Amino acid sequence: MGNESSLHEFLFMGFAHLAGYENVLFVGFLVIYFITVTGNIVILSLIWVDIRLHTPMYFFLSNLSALDLCYASSTTPQILQNLLMDRKGISFQACMAQLFFLISCAGAECILLAVMSYDRYVAICIPLHYPAIMIRRTCLQLAACPWLIGILNATLHTIMTSVLPFCGPNTIQHFFCDVPQLLKISCIDTSLNDAVLHVVTIFVGFGPFFFIILSYVRIISSILKIRSVDGRWKAFSTCGAHLTVVTLYYSTIIFNYNRPPGGYPKHVDTLASVLFCIVTPMLNPMLYTLRNKDVVQALKRAFSGHSQSRCP
Asked: DSSP code of 267?
């Protein structure tokens, strides 16, 4: 029986049913990746240079943009390369590296979205205590937790997957390396890996999701107690973009990972994965730019040359 040391390459079959459309897909994904990189760099730059955005809310948003940059870059460049190649493969080492960064960013984003919901909860439900609670040290600790948990989660899954024996075939019915697809082609019982994957998903994925739901139950309850319509709208507008991002992110995760026993049809499966790892990182900066008055005003100041800045 062979093991991972004798396996040098995996072949992606995720786009096999779209043969002949590689050039169109390449252009489309390249445009999406360019928008993703540009949009998130713009968000990071605005928050860095505009002193009006030096608040906990935008500090966490800058972390989200950094995560989305890493998230998209963990898969899209390899996908673009394979779309131009006849042999759509990836080395074993590169596959494990892609797996590590993908899981790190996906897990970290789940935790970070929960952190951002906590920030909105404190700002809306107990606003008088906000300056005392969301101090610089607390914000740094809250921002560090998602990155640390994401890295630890990815390290666990990457090690457990990398030591599995793969006896062939070495074809992955996908277009990037992910744990479920790799477990399918291992030649031993992967019950332990599956169990760990499900348990960690509950804590890292659904745990933060339920925390976000509870936070927004309290937030909405507090907003409804505000007497003036303008006051309610102003309070809700501060968390509208975040709520939209949460809805988008978790709907793509659920759609992508909670598949029916028979799986999705090929075109639906491809769409779910594209939305999850390519489109979502592009939409996040757009949502925060288009639906956030402070960011829009910061953009206007930046383009007009009147932005207040602070030297690093």
From this structure: H
Contact 121, 242 (CB under 8 A): no
Three-state SS letters, 100-151: HHHHHHHHHHHHHHHHHHHHHHHHHHCHHHHHHHCCHHHHHHHHHHHHHHHH
The string of pLDDT tens digits covering residues 69-94 is 998 999 999 999 988 888 888 888 99
Look over the chain and give the mean of its residue pLDDT values, rounded to a whole number: 84
- 148 is a domain residue: yes
Question: Which residues constitute the domain of residue 256?
Answer: 4-302
Domain for residue 47, yes or no?
Answer: yes
Backbone angles phi, psi at 171, to 5 degrees: -95, 135
**pTM of the predicted structure, to 2 decimals:** 0.88
3 state DSSP class of 162:
helix
Q: pLDDT tens, 101-110?
A: 999 999 999 9
